[in-house]
Amino acid sequence: MKFGILTSGGDCPGLNAVIRGAVLKGIKVYGQEFVGFRDGWRGVVEGDIMDLPRQSVRGISKQGGTILGTSRTNPFEGNGGPEVIKAHMDRLGIDAIIAIGGEGTLAAARRLTDAGLNIVGVPKTVDNDLDATDYTFGFDTAVQIATEAIDRLRTTGESHHRCMVAEVMGRHVGWIALHAGMATGAHAILIPEQATSLEQIATWVNEAHERGRAPLVVVAEGFVPDHQDSPHSERGLDAFGRPRLGGIGEQLAPQIEAMTGIETRATVLGHIQRGGVPSAFDRVLATRLGMAAIDSVVEQRWGTMVSLNGTEIEHVPFEEALGNLKTVPQHRYDEAAILFG
Ligand code: F6P
Fold it and tell me: For a surface tag, which of 11, 85, 211, 302 has the fewest beta carbons within 10 Å of its beta carbon?
């Protein structure tokens, strides 16, 4: 049996560990063969592959990025679609696809599975916003990177008696902001799930300042102040028609300064959160998910993805995974908010 692996959508630390886990288990336990599709669905639609022998995955679980490349190509657009992909798979002798990606990738995988293709999924998102898995790999690393960076912002903020605003990733959900904010002792954490007024933010900043602290605000890129209808976006749309986010920190900083009189600076952490080596937690999770994806193909569980439930890896149907976003529940925000101000 021969399987094709792809990584699609935004990259995140741990993708290579999934590839290694899948290839090593497939070769060692089942004598399977593997190829990689280059640049996500683009490689699938164009039949652009590379061989993945055992030596190609040597030592890569600690390597950031993805050795296969990625893209935000939609496999149903342009020359894509199930017939074209099936023809490439038949020509290349590929029996099934292991698709590693986030919600957009898995939604496309579901449509292709419905059209009769053999696909299993591995969930991936630094945002940690997929409901059917307790954690996605990449999230732990992103929180660690954000925490280290915000600790640094804290010391320069304290030297200058400034308010520091740190913008982190989180398109629909505020998990990175919540965890990095709690880890760094933020005086306000602003997340997409909780519309908040500028007055409330200024109150928290003032309270911290009055105690002699340099106020720290951690904001997720998808945060919407209560006087706005949608997240801050001024960089057009991505390939799936979603607004490119980023810039809410720069929007808030002068507003906070004007309302509090405290000099304020904003820093966007951006793609730094997705780069570099994965944490030990993410390497282990990603490796286990890659190995479990081999069980999925052996058991022909087409249309399912592997997921983490507690400490065990399970298999769940795509529809379960795609139904809901895993948002920050109210009690988790309320718990963190006790520490604001
Ligand atoms: O979906 C993960 C994510 O990192 C979001 O947090 C962010 O909005 C987006 O990807 C950035 O995408 P790109 O890499 O295309 O700039």
Answer: 211
